[in-house]
Specification:
alpha/beta; 6-stranded mixed β-sheet; 5-stranded mixed β-sheet; 14 strands; 18% helix; rod-shaped; binds guanosine-5'-triphosphate; binds magnesium ion
C-alpha cells in the first residue's frame, strides 16, 4: 500500500428539499385544505477514523465528496426523503484542517471517533405547516436551505509510542527490523527510507509501537534532504530514540546536527525524553567506542548507550529504557491513542 500523509479534499453537504404548495382536491370533498409536505434534509459530511488504514492514499484518487440533496416535499402531506450522508474514512491519527492548514477542525486519535464536518441544509416547510385559524389556505412554502461547501486538508500523524531519529545511515531501519516484525528497506546509502514505518516491539511480555522515519540532515527544517516533513509522525511519541552511527566518526557532531533540527522544527519535539545510542559497535574498536562516548557525553543530555543493531548487543537495554519512559507516560496521562489503550499490564 502506498504511503500518503497529506491530502486536500473538497466536501459539500446536501441541499435541503423545498417545501411543497398543494391543496387537497377530491370529488365531493369541499374545503380540502393545504396538504403540501416538507422537504427532506440534505446529507451531512462526516469523517471517521477507522482501523486497518495507515495511509491517505485513497484521497489521491478521489478528492470531491458531496452528500445527497434532500428531496422536495410532495402533495398529500408527503415528506421528501432525507439526502444520504457521506462518510470519509481516514486512518487513526488523522488531523483535519481548514484550507489554510492552520485551523484545526478535528484530531481523530481513536478508532471509531467521528466528526460531522458539514451539516446538510434543512428541508423547507410545505404549505400544510403554515395553516392557522386566520390563514386557512396558505399559498406559500419554504425553500430548502442550501448545503455548504468546504475545502479541507487531511494530515496523517502516525500514532506511535516511540520514534527513532538520526542522520541517514545511522541504522534506524536496521534497528526497527531487528526489534519488530516490520520489514523496512535497509541499505548503505543515505535516504533509503522514504516514508515512515511502524513496528510493534515486544519486550518483557509488553508491547509498544516504534516508528522509523527518514533521516534528518543539517538544514532539514529548510527542506534540505527529505526535509523535516516526516517529523510530524513522531510528534505524538512519548520518547525518542536518537541513533548515531559510531562508525562514521564524530558522534558528538552528528548528535548536535539532529538536535538542532529537532529544535528548529518546534512542536516540543526537542523537549521529549530521549534515549541516546551509538550504533554499529560491532564495527568499532574499544578505543573508538570510548572516544565517541566521551565526546558525546560532553554535550548530550543523558549518557549514551552503545549498541549494535546487527549483532544485537545492547539492544535489549535500549528497549527497556524506552519502555520505562513509555510506561511512565502511560501512567501519568490518559491513554493518548489506541495502541496504549489496548495495552494492559
Ligand atoms: N556494522 C554495522 N552496520 C550496521 C548496523 N546497523 C546498520 N548498519 C548498516 O548501516 C547501513 C544503513 O542502515 P539503515 O538501517 O538503512 O540506516 P537508516 O538510518 O535507516 O538510513 P536512512 O533510511 O537512509 O535514513 C546499512 O548498510 C546497514 O547494514 C550495525 O549495528 N553494525
Ligand atoms: Mg532507514
Amino acid at each position: 500500500m502506498k504511503f500518503l500523509d497529506e491530502a486536500k479534499v473538497y466536501i459539500r453537504s446536501g441541499d435541503g428539499g423545498n417545501g411543497c404548495v398543494s391543496f387537497r382536491r377530491e370529488k365531493f370533498i369541499e374545503f380540502g385544505g393545504p396538504n403540501g409536505g416538507d422537504g427532506g434534509k440534505g446529507g451531512d459530511v462526516i469523517a471517521q477514523a477507522v482501523d486497518g488504514l495507515n495511509t491517505l492514499i485513497d484521497y489521491r484518487y478521489q478528492q470531491h465528496f458531496a452528500a445527497k440533496n434532500g428531496q422536495a416535499g410532495m402533495g398529500k402531506d408527503r415528506h421528501g426523503a432525507n439526502g444520504g450522508d457521506i462518510m470519509l474514512k481516514v486512518p487513526v491519527g488523522t488531523q483535519i484542517y481548514e484550507e489554510d492548514s492552520e485551523t484545526l477542525l478535528a484530531d481523530l486519535t481513536a478508532s471509531g471517533q467521528d466528526i460531522v464536518l458539514l451539516r446538510g441544509g434543512n428541508g423547507g416547510f410545505g404549505n400544510a405547516h403554515f395553516k392557522s385559524s386566520t390563514n386557512r389556505a396558505p399559498r406559500h412554502a419554504n425553500p430548502g436551505l442550501p448545503g455548504t461547501a468546504l475545502t479541507i486538508r487531511l494530515r496523517l500523524k502516525l500514532i506511535a509510542d516511540a520514534g527513532i531519529v538520526g542522520l541517514p545511515n545511522a541504522g534506524k531501519s536496521t534497528f526497527l527490523a531487528a526489534v519488530s516484525a516490520a520489514k523496512p528497506k535497509i541499505a548503505d546509502y543515505p535516504f533509503t527510507t522514504l516514508h515512515p514505518q511502524l513496528g510493534v516491539v515486544k519486550v518483557d511480555n509488553r508491547e509498544f509501537v516504534l516508528a522509523d522515519i527518514p533521516g534528518l540532515i543539517e538544514g532539514a527544517h529548510e527542506g534540505v534532504g527529505l526535509g523535516d516533513r516526516f517529523l510530524g509522525h513522531i510528534e505524538r511519541c512519548r520518547v525518542l530514540l536518537h541513533l548515531i552511527d559510531g562508525a562514521a566518526g564524530d558522534a558528538a557532531a552528528a548528535y548536535a546536527t539532529v538536535r538542532a533540527e529537532l529544535l528548529a522544527y518546534g512542536h516540543e519535539l526537542a523537549d521529549k525524553p530521549e534515549i541516546i545510542a551509538i550504533n554499529k559497535a560491532d564495527a568499532l574498536t574499544a578505543e573508538a567506542i570510548e572516544r565517541e562516548v566521551k565526546g558525546l557525553s560532553r554535550i548530550a543530555k543523558s549518557r549514551p548507550l552503545v549498541i549494535s543493531a546487527v549483532s544485537g548487543e545492547g539492544v535489549a537495554e535500549v528497549l527497556r529504557a524506552l519502555l520505562k519512559v513509555v510506561d511512565e507516560a502511560r501512567r501519568g496521562s490518559a491513554p493518548a491513542n489506541e495502541a496504549s489503550a489496548a495495552w494492559q499490564p
